[in-house]
Amino acid sequence: MKVTMSVMEAPTPSAVHLSDWQESYFAVTSGTCTPRQKADGYRAKILRIQYAWANSEISQVCAASLFKQYTEKYSAIIDSGNAETGLNNYAENILTLAKCQQSDSDKWQSALTTDNVFELKSRGPFGKFVPPVLKQDGSENGGVQCKPHVGESTDPLLPVDERLKNIEPKMVELIMHEIMDHGPPVSWDDIAGVEFAKATIKEIVVWPMLRPDIFTGLRGPPKGILLFGPPGTGKTLIGKCIACQSGATFFSISASSLTSKWVGEGEKMVRALFAVARCQQPAVIFIDEIDSLLSQRGEGEHESSRRIKTEFLVQLDGATTSSEDRILVVGATNRPQEIDEAARRRLVKRLYIPLPEASARKQIVTRLMAKEHCSLNEEEIELIVQKSDGFSGADMTQLCREASLGPIRSLQSMDIATITPEQVRPISFLDFESALRTVRPSVSPRDLELYETWNQTFGCGR
Q1: I need a labelling partner for 203 at 20 to 30 A (CA). Which of 210, 266, 287, 351 fits?
Q2: What is the C-alpha to C-alpha distance for residues 10 and 154, in angstroms, rounded to an integer?
Q3: Percent of the chain with pLDDT over 70
């Protein structure tokens, strides 16, 4: 039987599923579908955005932008109180974004308006970045939140903080989720030795951050500090301690996180880093191996590396920076002589972190052995300290770790799988003597001379 159709009729809601309809059919300017069908098309769009966000296919910032875009586009349909033009209860079991309520006139009227549409969206996965927004009274929501409490919500229709203007939302999320360090709290007692450096940092960094009302004008804190010295002396630990003791947000980055992971977008990442830090101030930006990022400029330098370096120097102390910003950049390096002159000028406080002295090495051994089962007395600890001259803090930790394996090695004749913890003997002085034969200092005397010379020329310490 041959069937012909002279007129192509538009599909009806009862015949075709909503998701199969063409995008153009639901356009606001379309004259083909009814206002009710346009409203249902809007609800389908909102549902797709909600689903993509809930499954982490798009970010919250992207979802907020789409919500705002479609809400403005369909505002005439959403806010209409007429049953013929407002959102109806079609496909209620499938599209659950709108709560349809029956009015006194027995006409269906949607509860979805431009004022409450965002209350229906998913909150998204826990820990999503929530950009700081300006409330309607002009105040802020307290800055960027990395992990909002359950039950918190922000209205994406509100304007985003001006400090994040022109910053790509994806880069902001990368800063918050991959660069911010949420480690355990660190106190000054956790750092052995370097008393002069700790006293200087308290004076010029921690106190001004705790009392910004007192440290103003010439007493204002510096914007940059350089910690230089042999590897393994606690420079990174000092950076974390600064953030903990001052109550500041701690950002820990390296040159590789800006140059290799986001190839071609390094300068944008630097700009995003400082923008987020301004929203989170007081903030501490710790840059490990800063010589890799701010090395001396030369003719053979790659253009992308030069742009990153220039952007960093501008953000650190340039025309766009404010004296009221409570952002501290702490750089750590083992090669201070390779740092660019412009960067060295901006890192006004350059503190030498030397190898631990005898008292500091004793403190390290005592603290580490206090957590272990050992039989060391005071005299044996003093001998260990004398024989470990020239060791860094990391070397001392490795020495104690190697000595702690001595009791295990003495059980080789027994089945390690069947022994009990009581059968493992205490760590003795003989274990440390054996460890001293295998663990060597990681810093050479020649390197120490270079650090001392640079400290006398550019350093701010003794």
Answers
A1: 287
A2: 41
A3: 65
